[in-house]
């Protein structure tokens, strides 16, 4: 059943991609075909014009190849390997890499309010998601800024979620960006700087962990992205002790 669910999630992600990809890919193909057709016309008379059109065609083909490469990397993502993870400890252990990634101009503050609480999640994917959020926060802040990683428990009547908030003092998101932020390949960054996959990976990770993503953002003030993750139930902790190799508890 787990494999089936994974497959369904993968198919859903690929389905979401298809529309946008097909459109972009078609545009690139049009450049290739148009370039070759024009080049054919100039082949005999003005070879330098033919060469220019062939170079355009080559450029389009290279961009199409790059797009499919990125698509394949995304679609072939590794299956999740969930384990009991004490989230605050995991963040503490990962903070140095986050700090190095965001650089000196941004001050990192950890405000961890869920000591000892564990979630059932793929640790590597969690760290990846955290890093994606930190990089986005960094890129949203010009000059100096503050990045806060905060955890807290968000309890309702019958569920407990561990909220992992990544808060920046950056540019914030417009309504249009907010609406499209989880779309694979959606980016507002200059070509070559953003892949547009960071937030869709965060989204996929939270879905896979039975959680969700919440965003609060004000243009010109900043953004807070929260990964809401279910707190592991005691049964899961017991199950992981039965099978220590597969699902070790990490402190
Ligand atoms: P990428 O970072 O490669 O552009 P993402 O999927 O991570 O791809 O993000 C998509 C877009 O969402 C970004 O290009 C940016 O416009 C917007 N965004 C994401 N995080 C933030 C943030 N913390 N503040 C402002 N805008 C953001």
Automatic annotation (TrEMBL):
<protein>
    <recommendedName>
        <fullName>histidine kinase</fullName>
    </recommendedName>
</protein>
<feature type="domain" description="Histidine kinase">
    <location>
        <begin position="20"/>
        <end position="233"/>
    </location>
</feature>
């Amino acid at each position: 059943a787990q494999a089936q669910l994974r497959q369904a999630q993968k198919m859903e992600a690929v389905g979401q991609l298809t529309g946008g990809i097909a459109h972009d890919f078609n545009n690139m193909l049009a450049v290739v075909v148009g370039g070759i057709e024009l080049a054919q016309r100039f082949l005999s008379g003005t070879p330098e014009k033919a060469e220019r059109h062939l170079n355009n065609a080559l450029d389009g083909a290279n961009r199409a190849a790059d797009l499919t490469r990125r698509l394949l990397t995304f679609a072939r993502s590794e299956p999740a390997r969930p384990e009991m993870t004490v989230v605050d400890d995991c963040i503490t252990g990962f903070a140095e890499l986050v700090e190095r990634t965001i650089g000196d101009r941004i001050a990192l503050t950890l405000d961890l309010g869920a000591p000892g609480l564990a979630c059932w999640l793929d640790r590597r994917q969690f760290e990846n998601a955290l890093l994606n959020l930190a990089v986005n926060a960094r890129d949203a802040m010009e000059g100096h800024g503050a990045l806060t990683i905060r955890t807290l428990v968000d309890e309702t009547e019958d569920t407990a979620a561990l909220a992992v908030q990544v808060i920046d003092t950056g540019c914030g998101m417009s309504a249009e960006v907010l609406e499209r932020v989880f779309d694979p390949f959606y980016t507002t960054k200059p070509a070559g700087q953003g892949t547009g996959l960071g937030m869709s990976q965060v989204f996929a990770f939270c879905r896979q962990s039975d959680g969700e993503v919440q965003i609060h953002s004000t243009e010109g003030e900043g953004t807070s992205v929260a990964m809401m993750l279910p707190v592991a139930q005691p049964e899961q902790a017991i199950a992981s002790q039965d099978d220590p190799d597969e699902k070790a508890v990490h402190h």
